[in-house]
Amino acid sequence: MAIHSFFFEKGPQAVILMHAYSSTPNDVRMLARALEKENYTVYAPLFKGHGTDDPEDILAASPKDWVRDAKEAIHFLKEKGYQEIAVFGLSLGGIIATKMLVDSEPIVAGGTFCSPVVNFHSENNVKEAFLTLVRIMKKKAGYSELEINDRMPEVERKLTNQLTELNELTKSMGNQYSEIKKPVFIAQAGQDEMINPELSIAFKESLKQAPVVDFHWYEDSKHAVTVGVDRKALQTDVSSFLKQLDWNGG
């Protein structure tokens, strides 16, 4: 069954929440509901290629598509009348949220949750996790082990190309982090099994001109921090960050 974007309309201040690679907006649904209770309007777009039963659909998309998805999400909210918008994302979603800051999109602030926005290729397990997901989903769809094995080299080739594109995106953004002049929220799980947790510290240190860098380390959490053991603490910390923003200046 296909999974779609969701949109919770509430107050005049809006938040965009973007999901992780090979995942869906369900990553951020609990955070969205918590923010909705705080009177924020929340929109969680679905990245192109995601949300289907076939992970290979993801490989037919590109980082450029996901950047476009984020910009269209901002435009969607503007068209709805929301002029004050903050953008956050988990993992891949955080890369794209940071791209919105780098591109000076009309947002008040941005944030990342366990996101490899610095040196994407450094010690991450994204490739292995995706290949495992493909095997699981192909088996569930009725493919034989032989059919799956025959398909995997092409899947791995496309995946390698896509991850290289993602790495090139983060590299192209990196030298602009020192120029970001909007508040930034950074959350990192101490037990992150997907990326090197130290990357978030490097990102924090690169933000030379951001007026606020709100950094939070959740020692007992794994990569999907939005749904993990520290999800309530994350919800509280994001809410506190949003409350201290100069929304009228956005």
UniProtKB/TrEMBL annotation:
<dbReference type="InterPro" id="IPR012354">
    <property type="entry name" value="Esterase_lipase"/>
</dbReference>
<dbReference type="InterPro" id="IPR051044">
    <property type="entry name" value="MAG_DAG_Lipase"/>
</dbReference>
<feature type="active site" description="Charge relay system">
    <location>
        <position position="223"/>
    </location>
</feature>
<feature type="active site" description="Nucleophile">
    <location>
        <position position="91"/>
    </location>
</feature>
<dbReference type="Pfam" id="PF12146">
    <property type="entry name" value="Hydrolase_4"/>
</dbReference>
<feature type="active site" description="Charge relay system">
    <location>
        <position position="192"/>
    </location>
</feature>
<dbReference type="InterPro" id="IPR022742">
    <property type="entry name" value="Hydrolase_4"/>
</dbReference>
<dbReference type="InterPro" id="IPR029058">
    <property type="entry name" value="AB_hydrolase_fold"/>
</dbReference>
<protein>
    <submittedName>
        <fullName>Carboxylesterase</fullName>
    </submittedName>
</protein>
<dbReference type="GO" id="GO:0052689">
    <property type="term" value="F:carboxylic ester hydrolase activity"/>
</dbReference>
<feature type="domain" description="Serine aminopeptidase S33">
    <location>
        <begin position="13"/>
        <end position="225"/>
    </location>
</feature>
